[in-house]
Amino acid sequence: xxxxxxxxxxxxxxxxxxxxxxxxxxxxxxxxxxxxxxxxxxxxxxxxxxxxxxxxxxxxxxxxxxxxxxxxxxxxxxxxxxxxxxxxxxxxxxxxxxxxxxxxxxxxxxxxxxxxxxxxxxxxxxxxxxxxxxxxxxxxxxxxxxxxxxxxxxxxxxxxxxxxxxxxxxxxxxxxxxxxxxxxxxxxxxxxxxxxxxxxxxxxxxxxxxxxxxxxxxxxxxxxxxxxxxxxxxxxxxxxxxxxxxxxxxxxxxxxxxxxxxxxxxxxxxxxxxxxxxxxxxxxxxxxxxxxxxxxxxxxxxxxxx
Length: 306
Known about the structure:
Layout: H1 9-16, H2 22-33, E1 43-46, E2 64-68, E3 73-79, H3 86-99, E4 114-120, E5 132-138, E6 145-156, H4 170-180, H5 189-192, H6 195-204, H7 211-282, H8 288-295, H9 299-305
Parallel strand pairs: 3-4, 4-6
Antiparallel strand pairs: 1-2, 2-3, 5-6
């Protein structure tokens, strides 16, 4: 068996965003958001999965969005590329999902909480080892909650490094599926024990995709590959430019330092020669100790002049 890569946004929506995938999405959200507690009993998937019409454009289809049975809205995004301003986009999308619940004139008490779940194939918070992190509005010093109406949850896949025999929880198995499903040729028995993940593997089988879906998936993979290479090339060029500038500055500093040292050495040698000239004029007049104190030359140097 060969599986599609869940880390691409197109494949992610195929697996989690179809109406037939409600059980998969419920199991996934209970594991990631609620520490495997069965908090979500039902949900409605908004904008169910449809193959995008515009190939390679993320805006041609929405991320997975669902309304939970308790009224909360969950928006889920799988992000492969670390693009400029992405962290602001996450906040904007969450705030937008919160605000569009009301029509003009409706009371604010009708607003339901929004959870923005963002899964990244890059590290967003390099200073933290946590794979899953959660952010809410809190008081700055005492860290008391202001509101849990907007909650930002991040899953950073590069920080998850457990091997198959190290998976101890359902959450571990979901993360393993997201990160490595496309590298497997069969469903590991320990993971198949979780019905929702087994179903996710079934949906992710390439043999279950239509020809159109396979073509779209391949073009999406190519788009992401080219985008990564473009970002890498820009980084290399920036580093090379920075290195060249550093070398240029180093040469300038070296020349300035060398000139300064040369002048200093010249001044020192000139001062030394002047002292010797004074000493020559005094060798037949004063004693050696007095000449040494006057010129700063050593007694041995004065004896040589004598």
